[in-house]
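During the practical work, I selected for study one protein's amino acid sequence and its backbone structure tokens, as given directly below:
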Amino acid sequence: MRGRAQPDTLPAVREENGTFQDLRPAGERSSALGTGAAGEGAPDLPGVELAQRSSGQILDSALDIARGRFGLYVLAASVVWVFARALQPFLGQQQTQEWMLDGRPGLALAAMGVNVAATMFVQQMALVLVALLAWPRLVGTRIPFWSAVGRAFLAVFPLLLVTLVISSVTFAAMCLTCGLGALYLAWKSSLVPVTYVVERAGLVGCVTRSWQLTSHERTDVQAFHGFLRWFAVMGTAYVVQMAFSSLGGAADLPEVRRDVIDRTGMSEWTYDGAVLALTSLFNGLGTAIYSVIALAFYVDCRVRRDGLDLARKLEDLRVAWPASARAEEVAPASFASAAGTATAWPASVSTSNAPSAAPRSAPGEGAPVEPPAASAGTPRGSDAPTPDPSSPPSLDAPPPRQEPPA
């Protein structure tokens, strides 16, 4: 087809608020991510190719998403984790163990509850923040850092509420189905955080949207392959995250803490400061990897369920079409200007050689003036045929010459 050549990487597109299928070019720099003037003074990032992938290819695409900005993702997640890790010297396992030995179990349980709540809050905050920072990598635009931080912070509290409800239902399903129901619900709810922050689907909408993206029209081998793909991809992400978080959790054990302090001779505050920095970094690294893999799995589900790759290709054709159409419309106008026919012919002229429909009067005289027998260029008495006045005008014939009044 006519138009510009298709690029190797599809152009930037964005999602409309509240919809999943309407895409528009990102030239306006005002997407649902709230980018505003994102990318001012900086070139756009190259987009990642959209296609249906296997589990191994999804993990490879996660590396493509993280490439070039992975340091930013780890730094952002680590800074968020600092707030939770800073509570460990006051509400960690060392303090709760001492309170239990002193006969204050209520205070120990309260500290454990606050510690768990802070950990859940920070984990969700870091996960959605990395997802918001990495999502523009797929559409080829940039998002301001503080805009992503604000959106992630506002999304944490609703996500915590949804997570608590899903966890309660999952626990009940695990008890009633010997773990099978819990595994099924974990599969269906695995995209809840990403759909909430990327699509702004709402409290109920993020759950239904995650269910829709992980569902298949048939419940045969295709659905089983989808489950295996989720198990391989998200299972890898979970194992990597647990590996890094366990390294940080080992430093919180009271036995490890006492042994390191006795062997090195450092003070407790020095040990707590070093553990705060290292565990924040390890947890941030694990959370960044998990979030990027979850985003890659989400994109694959969008491609399979919504046809996101086809929508982007159609959008590219739609953007390219007006430019070619305008180029084709300019040619006739330029030709007409060069020929000197800027004004249109009168609608009353039917043909260049036809006589006038009625006699004309000269100014100031009532007597009619006899029209010429033939137009200029046609001699009297010639054998040239007289055209039919009812025939349409010829576009190649010049306009009739008007005789000056007598």
Q: What stands out?
A: The longest strand covers residues 13-15. Residues 50-321 form one domain. The chain has 14 helices and four strands.
